[in-house]
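Continuing from the previous page of notes. For each protein in this section, the sequence appears first, followed by its structure tokens. Read the first protein now.
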Amino acid sequence: MPSCDPGPGPACLPTKTFRSYLPRCHRTYSCVHCRAHLAKHDELISKSFQGSPGRAYLFNSAVNVGCGPAEQRLLLTGLHSVADIFCESCKTTLGWKYEQAFETSQKYKEGKYIIEMSHMVKDNGWD
């Protein structure tokens, strides 16, 4: 397995400053608009979700995202309390975070993140 050490010296520093950087040795998803890291592939739970513009992925965790206020929404799988999430760098709305699920079968989503495919790009080691 490759080392996660980014190497010595300032030549390895990114040109943009983000709140969090994911290790280079992990396959990652980044914001398509500003390339801020959003999630590691290892945190992907499901590719079978639907966002407003199309396909979306469910992640266990995300970085470089902010949350708006929680509100109740009737989604395809029932009533949920969700908060829109946005990129901390470019402020683009990316998807939402499940704050609360009201149906027992949907409780696994609580605390998880939906990121819409139209706002993500794959980075690091997808060859």
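Done with the first. The second protein uses the same format. Note its length before scrolling.
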Amino acid sequence: MRLSRGARALRQISQRTISTASRRQLENKVSENQKLFQADNGLPVHLKGGAKDSLLYRTTAGLTLFGTMYTVYYLLVSSMPKKPN
């Protein structure tokens, strides 16, 4: 069975990206992160990552609060009978 030129090119590209030789090596930072998160500095673990974690936490809490209020509002609106015209 013959493959078309496009299929052969796609196969060659996919084999090239799967190859482990072309991956760059990343520095192992596990021990640094363990020291950061296990430090006894009075912060809860979900805020020990710094400003990024704090922003993510506050955004999530705000969206959750907004969604809860929005849900309660629409439950109240839909529980009221419509006025006849």
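What the second structure shows: The two ends are 73 Å apart (CA to CA). Residues 51-79 form the longest helix (29 residues). We return to this in next week's lecture.
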